[in-house]
Design goal:
379 residues, six-stranded mixed sheet, alpha/beta, globular, Mre11_N
Length: 379
Amino acid sequence: MKILHLADLHLGKRVNEMSMIEDQKYILDQIITLIKEESVGIVLLCGDIYDKSIPTIEAIHLLDEFLDQLSKMAIKVLMISGNHDSIDRLSFGKSLFTRSNLYIASQFENEIEKITVKENGITVNFYMLPFVKSAYISHIFQLQTDSYEECFRYLIEHTKIDEEETNILLSHQFVTANKKNPELSDSETSSLGGIDNIDFHIFDPFDYVALGHIHKPQAMGREMVRYAGSILKYSFSEIHMDKKATILTIDAKKEISLSFHPLKPLRDMREIECSLEELLKKQCEIGKQEDYMHVILTDEEQILDAIGKVRTIYPNVMQISFKNRRHMKQLESAQIKEDQISDQSPAELFEQFYKMQNHIDLDEKRLQLVLSVFEEVIR
């Protein structure tokens, strides 16, 4: 039995206001080819299928096309929702899709949904756990805590798992290894908000844990607890993250082996550092000019229409920044201001803010009122 583990498609995503739809279609077509070449029979989609809770028409059509191709190939698809997905939109047509081997778990209710698949004498139980907050689990089971670890420990302990069979969990959560956090990118940190950890040991009853949520492919705690990673680079903090597809092979002895298959993008996401003159004369290493670029210019003088000039070389430039003496001074000045702010008390900072807003000094009566408020808050 061969199983493809994918997550974090983020269909419809825009990066620096550029649509990634064409790039996503290219990767999904590549994945279809991989499925055929490797004779994959089951595909796991572990959350953040769409980038927005209200996806674009283009994103909906792209997912529909991808799932239609899988259905025509008689591939079983197990899909859960992530924190970016809309429960209602992802679950639309769930009963109908089940007849076409598409199983969707978009909302946790009162137990983890179990799907059993039998193929060539091998039986695998798939437990589908979409993104869910601990407070919801606590409410459902009337627990006395909303700690992520305690809630998920309770949930797993009260899930019937046959240890004689192969059990795979699909989950879209922030799982850590002995409190060591996985590596995050800029495209994730803004959406994760207050991060709540779940220790990987909580999922020990499962033979494999197919995770979504983190964009870098990586194992957490043990080899069989893995983030699939996103299918594309979605920020410049991901430029050194090689994207890949993970395939599980389960043999007749219930042993699981993993293989990793690189995903090659239509346009890569890269950085280059040089002067504008070097760039225009192609005296630096240019690479593929269609790539999404962050260009760091080292010129000391002001440049008019820098992005327009850079675009003659890199039409898909996403970001331009400068690295020169003036820039370094600005960074130093900002650091000094930050240090100065950190040395000041809340009352001193409020005095400065009051003067900036009202153009008069804060009088003694109001100052004492402010101090009493700060004291009350601190207590």
